Automatic annotation (TrEMBL):
GO terms for cellular component: MIS12/MIND type complex; nucleus. InterPro entries: PMF1/Nnf1. This is Nnf1-domain-containing protein. Residues 129-163 form a coiled coil. Keywords: Cell cycle, Cell division, Centromere, Chromosome, Coiled coil, Kinetochore, Mitosis, Nucleus. It comes from the Eukaryota. It comes from Malassezia pachydermatis. Pfam families: Nnf1. It is found in: Chromosome, Centromere, Kinetochore; Nucleus. One of its GO terms (biological process) is cell division. The keyword Coiled coil applies.
């Protein structure tokens, strides 16, 4: 909410009040006080230092004030406060009872000014928010299904890799048996071949 001329006037009055306060610096930082505080300086140098000190101090304080106005968005906050008080005054002119619903939706002790002013706008956005929440729920369900499919595929892939690994191990054992054992050990060789064929059979 933009700052209104009335709010700008309030800020200007605050700055003017600060300027009056800064006048106390001139009253206290006199040439006599400076000369007493810095006796080793010559009079001309002390006066220059005094004037520079006063100017720098005033500028720093004024800059801090402007920084606080910007940081806390004082202009817009004053505008919100003015809008809220005007609405409250208007409702009071209708002589509503203190417990009337017409007054209850204006002020709450637990919410800030901006929330109170935007409450009606939030209510109008409720259907859109509900639709977005439903869409989000659908996306989450679809993601969960995709993750389940990926996990299943990974398990199947791992099982196939394990089967291939076992087959290679049996093949190594077979080659070792052929090269290291005598041909007459036909019974052991047949058992190894049967095991290999059984393990490499396609999974139904």
């Amino acid at each position: 909410m933009a700052s209104t001329p009335g709010n700008q006037e309030r800020l200007d009055r605050m700055r003017a009040a600060l300027d009056k306060f800064l006048g106390l610096i001139d009253h206290k930082a006199t040439a006599k006080n400076f000369a007493h505080a810095l006796p080793h300086l010559e009079a001309v140098a002390a006066e220059k230092a005094r004037l520079q000190f006063i100017q720098d101090l005033k500028t720093a304080i004024q800059d801090d004030l402007e920084g606080l106005i910007v940081k806390y968005e004082l202009g817009p906050r004053l505008a919100e406060l003015e809008a809220l008080t005007q609405e409250a005054d208007e409702r009071q002119r209708h002589a509503h009872a203190p417990t009337s619903a017409e007054l209850k939706d204006v002020w709450r002790p637990t919410i800030d000014i901006a929330t109170a002013i935007r409450a009606r706008v939030s209510a109008e956005q409720a259907p859109r928010i509900a639709a977005l929440e439903a869409e989000l729920a659908e996306l989450q369900a679809a993601n969960a299904a995709s993750e389940a499919r990926i996990a299943s595929m990974e398990a199947e892939t791992q099982a196939a890799q394990d089967q291939v690994s076992r087959s290679f191990t049996l093949l190594d054992e077979l080659l070792h048996a052929i090269s290291m054992q005598a041909p007459e050990d036909e019974k052991a060789l047949r058992a190894t071949l049967d095991t290999l064929l059984q393990d490499t059979r396609p999974v139904s």
